[in-house]
Amino acid sequence: MKTPFAFALVLSLLLAPLHAHDATAEMADAAKNFLGALTAEQKAKATFPFAGAERTNWHFIPRERKGLVIKEMTHEQRLLAHALLATGLSHRGYAKAVSIMSLEAVLAELEKGRAGGAVRDPELYFVSVFGTPGGKEPWGWRVEGHHLSLNFTTAGDAAPALTPSFFGTNPGEIRTGPRTGTRVLAAEEELGRTLVKSLTEEQRQTAVILAAAPKDILNVPGRNATKPEGLAQGKLTAEQTALLVKLIREYLFRHRPDVAAEEWAKIEKAGLEKLHFAWAGGLERGQPHYYRVQGGAFVLEYDNTQNEANHVHSLWRDFDRDFGADLLGEHYKAAHPAKP
């Protein structure tokens, strides 16, 4: 029988808070386990130099990609690939990611008989590792395919950077078949709509920046041109601010909670008053619509206009931290201090 002291010790370990450096160690272990299960040929496909151009070559459209595709993995290797993916996401985020992959089968059925279209395959998702996991040198990894681009970067034992981060769904809502009613990104849509519909007419005149929603998110790969616009947080009521916070946290906490909590703390420290909420398009479900939350370099975007407003794109970026830009700067500064 355990003594009270031993029981308290075990309990304290179980309840100990996670720290961001735990994320780095867990990701490194999972990446090593995954790479260790690959053949030499597979490993050559899955690994890239950290400093190469491929690390920042991200996109969410169906296209030719580099990396090791799930379709070419054994059952054991697939499990280890998913174990790596799970180190970067929360339970909710992981469920969304694999559900997005599953929608490729739905699209294949909806597009059956259509000539010249993209290949729809739930196994057409690629795993890539950049640099050597663990150790002091920078490294990173990516899981990417149609409507999913998850990029993680770290250096030494620093907390990993989580952006760019893209989740999308087509269809946004499954309307036929056994999965009718499924909406993988329903929370992202409904929280944005709830916030804009809570605004007064005067607030809405500032928040709505365009009568018609843009055809896609604006901060696509290669672009980071938007600036904060729309309604400033300082013009919101306490209840509306709570809705804004809930919306932001929905995006951040798709990722592992310890690192997401640090990201949220940075946003709070920078000042919620710097945040702006912008909306474009219709206010009712089924109408093409778009929204953006931005404060400085931090931006969340959502767009649902394609396929009769049943095709969702959602994005989290931080132009100062995408691909670990800030932590890499600190790492190289520490490794090569300026001479007096």
List keywords for this structure.
single chain; 340 residues; alpha+beta; 2 domains; twelve-stranded mixed β-sheet; 12 strands; 39% helix; globular; disordered N terminus
Description:
- The protein is of the alpha+beta class and 340 residues long.
- Helices cover 39% and strands 18% of the residues.
- The protein contains 11 helices and 12 strands.
- The chain has helices spanning 4-15, 20-36, 40-46, 75-88, 91-110, 186-198, 201-207, 238-252, 257-270, 306-309, 325-335; strands at 47-48, 68-69, 126-130, 139-145, 148-154, 165-169, 208-210, 231-232, 276-281, 289-295, 298-304, 312-318.
- Strands 1, 2, 3, 4, 5, 6, 7, 8, 9, 10, 11 and 12 form a 12-stranded mixed β-sheet that branches.
- A hairpin with a 2-residue loop joins strand 10 (289-295) and strand 11 (298-304).
- Helix 6 packs antiparallel against helix 8 (238-252).
- It is globular, with a radius of gyration of 21 Å.
